[in-house]
């Protein structure tokens, strides 16, 4: 969904994007994320934690399994990749 912006706001975003060698979407996303962090700090909320290396490895492995399973509804048992030939969890 496009976010409406004034001509001045769009011009500023385009200038900053050109200066940084980024897309307009990138500079807007970075600016909004920074503003969100500041607002959370102002409200006393902790920023979302980054996953640890162990958690990241686990997430990556799960994502490999999901990709290997193929699209949902493609036929067959969508949970088959979760179990071995004996029906035990992988």
Tell me, rounded to a whole number, the average pLDDT.
85
Helix content: 55-70%
- Structural class category: mainly alpha
Report Rg: 21 Å
What ranges have pLDDT less than 50 throughout 5 or more consecutive residues? none
Main pleated sheet: none
Helix/strand order: HHH
Beta-strand fraction estimate: under 5%
Tell me the total number of β-strands.
Answer: 0
Number of domains: 2
- The coarse overall form would be elongated
Contiguous helical run count:
3
Q: What distance separates the N and C termini?
A: 40 Å
Notes on the protein architecture:
- With 90 residues, this protein is mainly alpha-helical.
- The chain has two domains: 7-43; 53-82, no CATH class.
- The protein has helices at residues 7-20, 24-43, 53-69.
- It is elongated and about 65 Å long.
- The two termini are 40 Å apart.
- The mean pLDDT is 85.
Characterize this entry briefly:
The chain is mainly alpha-helical and 90 residues long.
């Amino acid at each position: 969904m496009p976010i409406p912006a004034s001509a001045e706001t769009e011009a500023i975003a385009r200038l900053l994007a050109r200066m940084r060698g980024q897309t307009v979407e990138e500079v807007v996303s970075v600016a909004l994320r920074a503003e969100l962090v500041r607002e959370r700090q102002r409200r006393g909320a902790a920023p979302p934690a980054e996953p640890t290396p162990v958690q990241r490895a686990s997430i990556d492995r799960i994502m490999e399994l999901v990709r290997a399973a193929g699209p949902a509804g493609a036929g067959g048992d969508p949970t088959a990749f979760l179990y071995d030939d004996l029906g035990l969890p992988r």
